[in-house]
Design a protein that fits this description.
Elements: H1 3-25, E1 29-32, E2 45-48, H2 53-59, E3 62-64, E4 67-69, H3 72-85, H4 94-107, H5 111-115, E5 119-126, E6 133-139, E7 144-147, H6 149-156, H7 169-172
Antiparallel strand pairs: 1-2, 3-4, 5-6, 6-7
């Protein structure tokens, strides 16, 4: 083999290795050839396709507990109907317990903090601040906490914009403020009325 032949073999081997690395790291890419001035083809050019991956992921069915949900709206409807059909302050059955636990594990931003030392039961209760039905979990240590099924669903499968929680929704409902409860002098200094 001559020196020029070995350069060609090394060049071809290097190009093939680069092409294989490119193919394995970018599976959804198109290749196109461009011709140079002397009619030969030069190295392949890689162009990314315009398909957003998020759209494909939104369409994939999601298995949660015992059910498979084909859309975020279907998942939302399931938990919404459960929330409004279950009587308040009654422990949910084992089936629904598993469904809510899976929702928390897969959809909550901080599931370990919410679950804590383990969840004994789930209940539907009236939220003391918002005065609406809400899922509550009661931990093994008897502590309890509420959680938003809507936020969990949106984290697993993004909800349509009109169904998403607005970032300032708590402020609009009177939340986000510090409520001081205690004795007040009615805004007057001195404290005595006459």
């Amino acid at each position: 083999m001559t020196a020029s032949e070995s350069e060609i073999v090394e060049s071809t081997t290097t190009d093939a290795a680069e092409d294989m690395a490119m193919e394995s790291s970018a599976p959804k890419q198109k290749r196109s050839r461009e011709d140079n001035e002397d009619g030969g083809s030069k190295k392949q050019k890689v162009e990314a396709e315009e398909e957003p991956l998020d759209e494909e992921e939104k369409k994939k069915p999601v298995k949660l507990g015992y059910k498979i949900f084909s859309s975020s709206v279907q998942m939302f409807d399931y938990f919404y109907n459960l929330l409004h059909a279950w009587p308040p302050s009654v422990n949910l059955n084992k089936y629904e317990h598993t469904m809510l636990l899976e929702l928390l594990k897969n959809g909550h931003t901080e599931p370990d903090d919410k679950i804590g030392g383990g969840i004994r039961v789930f209940q539907v209760r009236k939220h003391p601040m918002w005065k609406s039905r809400c899922f509550f979990l009661i931990r093994e240590d008897e502590s309890f906490d509420d959680f938003s099924f809507r936020k969990c669903v949106d984290h697993i499968l993004p909800l349509p914009e009109d169904m998403q929680v607005k970032p300032d929704a708590n402020k609009a409902l009177g939340g986000g403020k510090k409520h001081h409860r205690g004795k007040s002098s009615g805004g007057r200094k001195g404290g005595s009325r006459q």
